[in-house]
Design a protein that fits this description.
Helices cover about 40% and strands about 15% of the residues. It has 20 helices and 21 strands. It has a seven-stranded parallel β-sheet with strand order 11-19-18-17-16-15-12.
Amino acid sequence: MLTQHLPTRGLELLALSLLLAATARTAPAALTLVDEGRSSYRIVVAADAIASEAYAAEELQRYLEKVTGVKLPIVKDSEPPATHDILLGDNAHLRKLEAAPDWKKLGTDGFVLETRGPRLVIAGGKPRGTLYGVYTLLEERLGVRWFTPELEHVPRTNRVVLAEVAETRIPALEYREVFWTEMMRNADFAARHRLNGHHYALEQRHGGRRVFYFPFVHSFDSLVPPDLFKEHPEYFPFINGQRVGGYVQRCLSNPDVIKLAIARVRQWIREHPEASIISVSQNDVGKWCQCEKCKALDDAEGSPCASLLRFVNTIAEAIEADHPNVRIDTLAYQYTRKPPKTLRPRNNVIIRLCSIECCFAHPLATCESEANRRFRDDIIAWQPVAPLLYVWDYTPNFAHYQQPFPNFKALQANVQFFVAHGVKGLFEQGNYSPGGFGEMGPLRAYLLAKLLWNPDTNLRQHQDEFLSAYYGKAADSIRGYLELLHRQVRDGKTHAHIFDPPTAGYLKPEFLSEADTLLAQAEKAAEDDAVRFRVQVARLPAWYVQLATKRVEGDARAGLLKRFLEIARKTGISHISEGQTLDQWAKKMGAE
C-alpha cells in the first residue's frame, strides 16, 4: 500500500507496487500484454479512424515501448481479427463482440476499459474518449506520470499483466480548463491530463477542444462598440441622471441595442464557424444601467441580473433555430451573481458563476465567512434553474503572484462542491502570464488537472507523488513548508482572498522565519542542480513577502532582491502580478 508520505524513492516504489498489482496472477481473465520482453499483442484501430483514435494508438504504442522495450504493431480493422488484440475505438472487430459500448452514454469524453477474454478494449466517445481511455490505462495500470511538460515518470519492466477489468468512465465535468501557464505551454501535456478547454492548442489528434469561445469573456465593448456613444448615448447606461460612456455596461432594454447585438453575434458566428460558445457577457466593471425600464425589471426580479438575462435570452432565441449547436455564455459576476426571481435562462444559455469575492483558504461549502455564505446561497439558487451552469473559479493571488497562498487544502472540496451543485464546466483561473511560475504553480496546475477529471481522486497521493518526483530529496522539507503555510489558516477565521496584500494575517513574521528555515533545508538537501533550482524557485514567495513588507533592510535587502531577481529571471517569470511585469516591480523596488 502506498504510504501517506512518499520517501525519496517514492516514485520507484509506486511504480513497483502498480506493476506488481498488474502482473499478479489472481484473475483467470488477466491479460499478459508483455512477458520477458516479448508480446503477441497488436493494437487495432478502424481503417477510417478519426485523428484522435489514430493518435491514441500511437500514444499507447509509444508508452508501452517506454515501459517494456516492446513496440506493439498498429494495424487496421481491415485485417482479420486475432486472439490477442487491443481494440481501440469503434472498429469492425469490436462490433463483432457482444455488448458493444453505449456510445451515446459515453458522450464526447467517456470511455470503456474492458478485458474481453484475451482481448483488451479501450473504446470511447468521439472525439476524445478513446484517447482518454489510453491515458487512464497508462496512468492507473502502468504507473506513468506526466508531472510537467519536461518531467514525466515511466516505470520499466519486462512483464505486464493486466488483471480483469470492466470499467466505464464518464467525467463529471464536460468542460475542464486549468488556466495556468504551466498547463497551457504544451498541448500534448494538456491532453494527457484530459483537459479540453478553450486556451489549449489542442489539435484534431487531441480530439480538439470541448468549448471554443468567441470572444472569451467581457464582450460588451465588442458587441456594442464604445465609440457609438457620441452618436447614440441612449445605447449606454443611465447612471445618476445621465448617460455614461467609457468602459461601462450597456442599456439592455434599448431595442436598438438588442438588434445591434443580435446582428453582431450572427456576424461572429459567420466569421468563426468553429466557435461552439459565443460570449455575451458584461464588462469587468460595475456601472450598469439604471434607466426606468432596466431598473423596473431589476427591482421586480430582485437582481440586476434580470435585465442582463432577458437581453441574453433574446439573443439566444434569435440564433437558436439557425445555429442549434451554438450556446450563448454570460456571467453571473459581482453585481449580477444573484439570480432573478422568475426569469430563467434558455436551454442554449450558459450561466458562468464567478467566485471572485470568496475566501479560498477554506472550503466554499463550510467556510464561515460572509462572502462564502453569499456564494453558497447564489449557487444553490442557480442550480435548479440553470440548465447549463459553469463556474469561473480563482486559484492564485492575482495582486501578488509570488505570495504564499494557502488554498491547497480547499481545492478538492471546492471542486466537489461545484459538481454537487450541478456545475458542468469549470474554469480554474491561475497565473496565466507568459512566464508562468507563480507560487507553487507547477504543483497547483497538476493537482487541479487531476481534480477536474476526477473530483474524488486521491489528491494527497497525487501531491506526494509530485513532490517526490519534482523535489527529490528535498521533498520532505517542501511538504513541511506547505503544512506550515496551511496551519496559518487552520483556525477557520483567518481567511485568504485573491487580492490579499503581503501584510495578510497568515503571513506573520514567525511564519516567514520558520518557512525560510524549512526552505533553506530543502535547498541543502537537493541532490543535483536541477532539483536545487526548483527549490530556489519555491523559495521566492517567502522572499517576496520579506521584500514587499521591508522586513529586511540595507545590504541584506539589496542582496535578497538581487538573488530574487536572478532566480526569477532565470526561470522566465514575466509578471509579478496580473497587471505588473517583473521588470516594473524590480524598478519600483529599487533594483539596479
